């Protein structure tokens, strides 16, 4: 029987690509999104659970039967400066708690390069890098088989991902750099299948592949 992978934030630009890549690998997926979330046509026909991420019981119900969860939720830029705390901290904490209650053992969080840094321009939006670190900490202390993936600046470009090579390193080693969302999605799926990435914080960016 195929193991079921849940993907939260699957309506987001990284989340939907994670779902597409999981499907391309023949995985069974369940998409956890808000009642108002819009999904691309490529994900029509998937097992979709619409819920309130503020309600633990709804998260637990949506996660029952899943083997793993990839969290690709993240506060969208807005005037609500509490967004990062509500989404990148609290909604992550709640998803972690729900995984424990629902028996989901393997959990991956898409976080961000520079997570935990206080003196950073990105923090002008609700101390987002601090909030992300609090979310990571909840996962790291959960007792679950966790992986934190911290990508650099996310790019929409789909045209040239094959021309890029990944730069992967441990926690607090990369300060800048970018990466196409498609490559982040592929890397997340790779991590789920790679036991050595359990209990690791991994920072990823990409750079043009050198000609041989
Ligand atoms: N932008 C960058 O350069 C960058 C760099 C490094 C890391 N990151 C992080 O990488 C992750 C993915 O980024 P992205 O740009 O691909 O994401 P995105 O397109 O902004 O999508 C965000 C996702 O989170 C969901 N979400 C937002 N608020 C929510 C809430 N209150 N409850 C439940 N779900 C909520 C959104 O749902 P709706 O569709 O319903 O709004 C959407 O599915 C995020 O955590 C982001 O912070 C971003």
Automatic annotation (TrEMBL):
Residues 9-195 form the NAD(P)-binding domain. InterPro entries: NAD(P)-bd_dom, NAD(P)-bd_dom_sf. Pfam families: NAD_binding_10. This is NADH-flavin reductase. It comes from Candidatus Synechococcus spongiarum LMB bulk15M.
């Amino acid at each position: 029987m195929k193991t079921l992978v849940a993907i939260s934030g699957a309506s987001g630009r990284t989340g939907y690509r994670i779902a597409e890549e999981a499907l391309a690998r023949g995985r069974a997926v369940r998409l956890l999104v808000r009642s108002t979330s819009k999904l691309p046509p490529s994900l029509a026909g998937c097992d979709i659970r619409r819920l309130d991420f503020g309600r633990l019981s709804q998260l637990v119900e949506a996660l029952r039967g899943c083997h793993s969860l990839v969290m690709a939720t993240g506060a969208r830029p807005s005037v609500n400066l509490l967004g990062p705390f509500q989404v990148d901290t609290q909604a992550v904490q709640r998803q972690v708690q729900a995984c424990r209650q629902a028996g989901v053992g393997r959990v991956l969080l898409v976080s961000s390069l520079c997570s935990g840094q206080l003196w950073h321009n990105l923090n002008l939006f609700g101390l987002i890098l601090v909030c992300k670190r609090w979310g990571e900490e909840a996962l790291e202390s959960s007792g679950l088989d966790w992986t934190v993936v911290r990508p650099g600046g996310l790019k929409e470009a789909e045209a040239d991902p094959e021309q890029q090579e990944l730069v992967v390193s441990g926690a607090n080693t990369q300060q800048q750099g970018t990466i196409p969302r498609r490559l982040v999605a592929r890397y997340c799926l790779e991590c789920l299948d790679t036991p050595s990435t359990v209990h690791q914080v991994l920072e990823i960016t990409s750079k043009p592949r050198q000609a041989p």
